[in-house]
Amino acid sequence: MKTxxxxxKLFFLIILILQIFPSFAQNKDKPNIVVFFVDxxxxxxxxxxxxxGKTAINKKFHTPNLELLAKESTKFTNAYATxxxxxxxxxxxxxxxxxxxxxxxxxxxxANKPTDNPDDLLTPPDWNINGMSPDPNIPxxxxxxxxxxxxxxxxxxxxxxxxxxxxxxxxxxxxxxxxGFMVNVAGHSAGHxxxxxxxxxxxxxxxKASLQAVPDLMEYYGxxxxxxxxxxxxxxxxxxxPIKRGEPFFLNFSNYAVHVPIQPDPRFVQKYLGNGLDAxxxxxxxxxxxxxxxxxxxxxxxxxxxxxxxxxxxxxxxxGGLSLKPMRSGxxxxxxxxxxxxxxxxxxxxxxxxxxIKDVQDGKERISDVPVIIEDLFPTILEYAHIKDYSLxxxxxxxxSLASLTKGKTDGSWKNRSLIWHIPNKWTVxxxxxxxxxxxxxxGDFKLVYEMKKGKLELYNITEDIGEMNDLSDKNPKxxxxxxxxxxxxxxxxxxxxxxIKASGKKVPFPDxxx
Length: 515
Prior knowledge:
Layout: H1 2-20, E1 32-38, H2 64-70, E2 74-76, E3 79-80, H3 85-94, H4 98-101, E4 122-123, E5 132-133, E6 142-143, H5 147-153, E7 157-162, E8 183-185, H6 227-245, E9 249-254, H7 269-274, H8 279-304, E10 311-317, H9 348-351, E11 355-358, E12 366-368, E13 372-373, H10 377-384, E14 418-423, E15 438-443, E16 446-451, E17 456-461, H11 477-493, E18 500-501
Parallel strand pairs: 1-9, 1-10, 2-12, 3-13, 5-6, 7-8, 7-9
Antiparallel strand pairs: 2-11, 4-18, 10-11, 14-15, 15-16, 16-17
């Protein structure tokens, strides 16, 4: 009887300890994984520098929580996404390059609606305008196994909060719950919010609602809760459940900020107006500080609940910063200097993004200058989750795990790796630098740019010329030919689509086929 009482008391003592210190109950082989995914954030649009030192642009912003996170993370100073959102988001979800999955432009909120603008010279190919799909035989989609589905199948509690934009309405991937998320808050087929304001119901006003009205969040209607804050509160609610149960979780927190409409966050905007920024740039900076507070609030909860040390944290943007008036102030394509151009472009301003990864129980600040790309996050996340045995619909993964780099290990396999971009589409009117019908490859220090409309090749040494101002194509024909061949061969292996020349009806040649 005495032994029975001791055993009984010990049992309840263990339960009490697990409730007070939930991290003790978590399986260290299945760390929590949190992705903070920001929309349209430029490489320099936080106060953490990713260049040689703080730039003038870095100094405009105040992101203290990201500064703290960076001190415990690997900072990737040569990280890339695609020029626009849906291709990046699908590449991350599937591990496949955009040229390979054929979602080469942003997808419309409604199915079967191409988003290409008309062009006088070229016709875009018949690309996957409806996005990706976890189900087969969905027209104009890329059928693939998304990694959240794999995480869920291996015991993870999977949560999506914020922007989704993986598939058009009427197709399965319009709902995050169909791509492996057990919880979905505010994710749907549209790519930006109609409104950031609760008093406007985040766009859900009778007679005024559009396809971009943010779903869910009804409990905040009529309040002063800014959209970023509402999403943060919902994310904290969602992660509290698996933490309480000692269950590993994956949180994909995909903020709608800083996508247009650039509306001021009342909590922070006055500071930036006082610093001399105009109304547009002050509003933009307030959106940046708003998502930084959001990150800090969630990290605070992770620490308070005792699970921070067992949590991988990834922070990134889905493409380069917007550089067009009137959405941003100043002359077009100056907002990301010294990087060239901005969102929509295959020049550095459109594809280079900030990337931080905090490993578990590490806490070391590292810098990696290895060029990496967004599809690398698919195998990276699965490696962090210690998941090796899984099946995929997509035959080949183009990404490469970054987990070794976050442990300070680099081998020769990274040195001559090729990163590829392929945009056979007309994103916006008019054409701009690196915008509409371009391909590119980066290999080592060099980057080749292929302008399809002009049949023109450019070559840059990115390490020495980050602004892509000094075209070396005439001075280094050997490198030009080598990269042209590597790019063409890979595009052909992927069966990448090429636009059609209207005058002749023929496809645009691959770069190594130019006369």
